Amino acid sequence: MLVHFFEVRNCTFESYKGEPVLFAPYDIDDDTLMKRGFRRSKEERWYRPVNMKEYSYIVYWAQYGDVDINDAASQNINNFNMPMPYVQRQQNDNTANILCYVSVGLMALGFPMSILGTILVGGLFFIAALVLMIIVRVKYPQNQFGKVLCIVYIVLAAIAIILTIAAMIIIAIVCNQFIQDCESCCHNIPG
Amino acid sequence: MIIHIDTSYKLIPPYVVMIVIACAVGIAMQYIMNRKRGIDKKIAGFVALLSPFMSFFFGLLLTYVSSGGKSFGLSSIGGLVGMYGSVLTLALIVGDKEKSRVMFENCTLALPLMYSVSKLGCLFAGCCHGRPYSGPFSIEYTGKVTEAGGVFPVQLSETVVFFLIFAAGVIMFAKGSKSAVYAVFIASAAAKGLLDFTREDHIGKIVSLNQILCFVMMIVCIVYLVIKSKKPAYAGVIKAEQ
């Protein structure tokens, strides 16, 4: 059985380091493979890990022969939802939620820490909160808390960028005004 | 030819404008290249989200540490560390060597463009200007920053040199040169280190902190290249065949 993954035809469906993957044939150019999410293994073979939905789709259609994965099939793959074992999903959600709570805590501490310490300490908390949110979004993409947190942080990041630019402009204007006032003051001193 | 620059401004300081444009251009360039080279939309987006904060943080941190905790300012090398820091963070989270390599390459290619644009801000603000100089293209500052005579156009030189490094790097990379990224990195570190000799701050110093950091970066890159060249390109295949 072969899998035709978009323009990467004749891929083999195998196991690599315990994970189901698609191995590309040798005659496909690197750019096409990278565009389609293939990675190079230590043995210089190009492979692409398949997610749970793709795995279920391939396993189901393999009984009828070669499997085609293309734009037309991608909608079917998304709807091809084999339920994840309950315990595994529960554990993933717990870990992701803990990371999200820690992230929210760090974000909440960021502002007071930048006032009590320096802006650098607050910045460190803010970056750590962002990194934890990214870990949740990458490792546990289905977690709802992570999704909400991502949107909230993007909005907060946009506000932070706008406020930082505004603060830099205000500081520059105040300094400029201060220097101009000093110059005019010094000019008026007799002698 | 003498260039006159008035550093006084009415409302919005040109320095802030150019720094913001530089960040936007660099991060947009990095995002586009990441997407073109097969990095997931989500990962490329997270790199773009994290990099302005990390570069701002490390930019401030370097000046804070180097001044002994006395002052804050934006350091370009700190910004560079922040840009690489954001890529490294995502590389560690994703845990994919191939994607990490692609992201590091794209970051290296975009950085000279970012630096080139940001130095226009320094040129208009008159900060980190050059030594006293009266030759062609010398700059005479008036307004907020007033110098007695002309100074060397170090910021303008950096803008031109780094744009040329960026353009050459992109052309080499587009033509399939595998050494383009390393060439860009080494050329950038060398240009930054050498042009630092022409700064006014450098008077009375043998080497500046920036030059030491540039030298360290060059050495690290060269050592990496030497180690890489000694390792057979198809070590994995040979091992598999054995």
Automatic annotation (TrEMBL), chain A:
Top-rank lineage group of the source organism: Bacteria
Keywords: Membrane, Transmembrane, Transmembrane helix
Transmembrane parts of this sequence: 115-136, 148-174
Name listed for the protein in its UniProt record: Uncharacterized protein
Automatic annotation (TrEMBL), chain B:
Keyword list, A-Z: Cell membrane, Lipoprotein, Membrane, Transferase, Transmembrane, Transmembrane helix
Record Pfam families: LGT
Keyword Cell membrane: yes
GO BP annotations, alphabetical order: lipoprotein biosynthetic process
GO molecular function: phosphatidylglycerol-prolipoprotein diacylglyceryl transferase activity
Transmembrane segments: 12-32, 44-66, 72-94, 151-173, 179-195, 207-227
A GO CC term attached to the entry: plasma membrane
UniProt record similarity statement: Belongs to the Lgt family.
Annotated protein name in UniProt: Prolipoprotein diacylglyceryltransferase
Organism: Ruminococcus flavefaciens
Taxonomic lineage: Bacteria, Bacillati, Bacillota, Clostridia, Eubacteriales
